[in-house]
Amino acid sequence: MSNEKADQMIRSSSLEEMSSVDLDSAYGPSGFHGLVRSSNILFYSLFASLGGFLFGYDQGVISGVLVMRDFETRFPRVGGNGDLQGWVVSIMQLGAFVGALINSPLADRLSRRYSIAVACVAFLIGSVLQAGAIDNSMLFIGRFIGGIGLGQISMGVPLWIGEIAPPNLRGSAVTLQQFAIASGIMISFWLDYGTQYIGGIGEGQSQLAWRLPFALRVIPAITLLIGCFFILPFSPRWLVKVRREHEALAVLSRLRKLPENHPIVQAEILQIKAGARFDALTIKEKFPNAKTSAQIAYQQYKELFMQKHLAKRLFVACFLQFLQQFTGVNAIIYYAPKMFKSIGLSGNSVSLLATGVVGIINVVATVPAIGIVDNFGRRIVLMVGALFMSLSHFIIATLYAIYEHSWAEHLSAGWAAAAFVWFFVFNFAYSVGCIAWIYPTEIFPLGVRAQAMGIAISVNWISNFVIGLITPIMLNHIKFGTFYFFFAFTMVLFGWVMFFLPETKGVPMEEMDKLWGGSEGKETADRMARIQNELKCESRNVPIYSKTSSYSDDLDIEMQEQY
Ligand code: BGC
Q1: How many angstroms separate the CA atoms of 392 and 389, rounded?
Q2: Measured at the alpha carbon of residue 21, what is the angle toward residues 537 and 430, in degrees to the nearest 5?
Q3: Mind listing the pLDDT tens digit for each residue in 87-139?
Q4: Neighbour tally for 524: CB within 10 Å
Q5: CATH (domain of 114)
């Protein structure tokens, strides 16, 4: 779209028209090309994705540490086949479940960016406790506290990226977080592999072999912490939410590399303001007695569950998180060596190598997602991914069922099964691996976005926790049935996306309501029209309401009181 056209729309008599400005095309191309052109969005998103790196690193590092000789000797109930092993892995996910939930009020109150800083501090405390652990309780407490930080990060980083990116790049920018998660997993797999040789893999193994991988993650965590104060800007949407609109405009213009008075920047800031005021006004009109921030937060949570269109979005976001985990990806991430051994790839080095390949494929296959999610849309990418993931599970399960007792004589069947494990990971990485993070960042109105994301991401972690616990049991008892089990969930993912999931590609965040039936009611439409009218006049410096009847004056006071 030309600047003149955008300009003309801003001056148009109806802000309804302006909000339908096709910001997608106004900002230029999507995918790689778009990211490279918006180099600052690329830089900020990559920097914030250090959080994703920490997340992946933490998920990956533990499996290698648990089997290190020195670790096993010091922590016999945790290392090797210790009875507390499952718990030491999953206590981190439980911490993350809590972290994702508590980050919502922090992200609203302190800002998205400072909530990430708080998360880094929790993560650092957890890392130091784990690296220096001298007994089980230190290890468990360290993993739990570190997990809280990770849960916060896993919610705060995509929320922040989703709010700074323009609509055409939102998907690609959030995808960088998945790329960072996958890189963290891969690097920690290989780092464990390398550090186990410090002092030799036998009796003489040094404690550094496992303390070092635990300790090294403080480097990216400290970098991210410093970046939260000196590099990452505030989210312009959060600034508008807390009525720091001048700052919001300045940040937006910096992010878009356009002057503050540029029509595109003006169109976007007005759209953000309209969305924020709409939320605030809705709360004010519906809950006139809610005055304190605690009362308002309570109403917001209540709204999420009681308002049909919000509850629908919450269900969709949570179900997507649940299905992401029940594709079985972490069954592979956590238990790949065990799986590869069970399908006849004998010898430690072969199964470790096969696991290393999982790590590499997971990273490599995330790259195309950066180009495709904003071009082809969320739905089609999810459906193709789900279809191929189901196919992989089905083939692995069937090969397993046929050759269960004769892998040794059918080596090629074992390799075929391994190839389909890799194919599964490939299809996970570009599809639901990324889109499960993108979708919740974009479908909720600003007023409840942080709360909703906290709930959705906590569902991801609790499902992750369940998978971590049930997979070894399933592998021991129902064996090939494990893969039929995950096959069923990938099919559900396919069907659900096909029949129920709305496309969100390129839809401006403030226009999402229309997709979910949020602005259908006459009352709601009237409210939006009044806000739009007021904003339009403000933008031209025309007073429309008398001092006493202006929505923004009332709201200014109300919103400032809240923060
Ligand atoms: C999932 C993680 C998983 C990772 C694998 C993420 O999107 O949330 O649980 O381990 O992808 O790359």
Answers
A1: 5
A2: 135
A3: 888 899 999 999 999 999 999 999 999 999 999 999 999 999 999 999 999 99
A4: 16
A5: 1.20.1250.20
Domain count, the chain: 2
Closest ligand 1 atom to Cα of 181:
12
Same domain, 277 and 319: no
Residue 303 falls inside a structural domain: no
Query: Does some domain include residue 556?
Result: no
Question: Looking at the structure, do residues 222 and 248 belong to the same domain, yes or no?
Answer: no
For residue 481, give every residue at least 6 positions away whose Cβ sits within 8 Å of its Cβ, in sequence order, or none. Answer: 397, 474
Identity of the amino acid at 296: I
490 and 521 together in one domain: no
> CA-CA distance, 501 to 492, in Å (whole number)?
12
330 lines ligand 1 (CB under 6 A): yes
Q: Is 460 in the pocket of ligand 1 (CB under 6 A)?
A: yes
C-alpha 423 to ligand 1 mean position (Å)? 16
Estimate the share of the chain in helix, then strand, then coil, as percent rounded to the nearest 5: 80, 0, 20
Residue 121 and residue 75 in one domain: yes
- CA–centroid distance for 329 within its chain: 15
Domain-embedded: residue 82: yes
Domain of residue 105: give its range. 30-232+313-500
On whether both 267 and 201 belong to a single domain, the answer is: no
- DSSP 8-state secondary structure symbol assigned to residue 83: T
- Does one domain contain both 426 and 537? no
Q: Are residues 228 and 176 in the same domain?
A: yes
Mutate to test the pocket of ligand 1, among 55, 188, 329 (most ligand atoms within 8 A of CB): 329
- Both 527 and 395 in a single domain? no
pLDDT, tens digit, 9 for 90 and up, residues 135-193: 999 999 999 999 999 999 999 999 999 999 988 888 889 899 999 999 999 999 889 88
Whether residue 449 lies inside any domain: the answer is yes
Distance of alpha carbon 90 from alpha carbon 461, whole angstroms:
10
What distances in angstroms separate CA 142 from CA 24, 147, 224, 231, one per listed residue? 44, 8, 20, 28
Q: 124 is written with which tokens?
A: 């650092």
| Backbone torsions φ then ψ of 465, nearest 5 degrees | -60, -45
The radius of gyration computed from the CA coordinates of the chain, to the nearest angstrom, equals 25
